[in-house]
Amino acid sequence: MTDDTFEIAGRKFSSRLIIGTGKYKDYAENAAAAEASGAEIVTVAVRRVNLTDRDKPMLVDYVSPEKYTYLPNTAGCFTAEDAIRTLRLAREAGGWDLVKLEVLSDQKTLYPDMAETLRAAELLIKEGFQVMVYCTDDPVYARKLEEAGCCAIMPLGAPIGSGLGIQNPVNIRLIVEQAKVPVLVDAGVGTASDAAIAMELGCDGVLLNTAIAEAKDPIRMARAMKHAVIAGREAYLAGRMGRKKYADPSSPLAGLI
Ligand SMILES: CC(=O)[C@@H](O)[C@H](O)COP(=O)(O)O
């Protein structure tokens, strides 16, 4: 493969897969999955993962911040204020200013509250954060978030943890077409083909957690996701053949014996 790195907020990455750090049996399994996935970025729910209490097991001892770029996220935040407070804490704890913003609307759908997300993004950017933003697959809000200065747009494929795959490929394509910053499908990926589809739609990457953590063999699924993202990206760059209405023989019909 040719060099196909991509950049988020001026930082270069080779892997286009970002994985989560929740729902694993333990941190050791999480570390093995991260290794198998080839991911260079791991996202960390600041309100759920122990980042400061040395008397308890700590993620950083298994998934090293020296090796992986930590992307603190605001999972569990339902207001802009909650999200901002959480990310200020993350910056104090680890100096992290590249962050994933998610402001959720309700427990049942875990859908992003887009008005609140936009407000939080504007405030965080003013404070110097580089904001990768979890959002609905709405091209209008995606554009507003980019105009506000977000460094990556991350529309959901389906509700968080649902594993339903990409429900609205048309909207994802529209978001990709208009964006000048990286677009990553975030949430709802259930298996490798979902990740490949995201990449075939032209996304710059995929962020996922549950599909790996809740697979029967998480390490194997992590490996599958790595290959799926590479395959989808290669297929996108190669350019899909046109869809035809009727059969078209694979070998020429002219000159048959
Ligand atoms: C880990 C994280 O940031 C999740 O909130 C994210 O949206 C992933 O969702 P899935 O678990 O559906 O992959």
From TrEMBL:
Q: PANTHER family, alphabetically?
A: THIAZOLE SYNTHASE
- Statement: the UniProt record of this protein carries the keyword Hydrolase: no
What CDD domains does the record point to? Answer: ThiG (cd04728)
Give the matching InterPro entries.
Aldolase_TIM (IPR013785), Thiazole_synthase_ThiG (IPR033983), ThiG (IPR008867)
A Gene Ontology molecular function term for this protein is: thiazole synthase activity
Q: Which residues form the Thiazole synthase ThiG domain?
A: 7-252
Q: Which gene produces this protein?
A: thiG
What name has this protein been given in UniProt?
A: Thiazole synthase
Which pathway is this protein engaged in?
Cofactor biosynthesis; thiamine diphosphate biosynthesis
Q: Which GO terms describe its cellular component?
A: cytoplasm
**Catalytic activity as recorded in UniProt:** [ThiS sulfur-carrier protein]-C-terminal-Gly-aminoethanethioate + 2-iminoacetate + 1-deoxy-D-xylulose 5-phosphate = [ThiS sulfur-carrier protein]-C-terminal Gly-Gly + 2-[(2R,5Z)-2-carboxy-4-methylthiazol-5(2H)-ylidene]ethyl phosphate + 2 H2O + H(+)
- The catalytic residues are 100
- Which organism's genome codes for this protein? Aquisalinus flavus
Q: Where the protein is mainly located, per its record?
A: cytoplasm
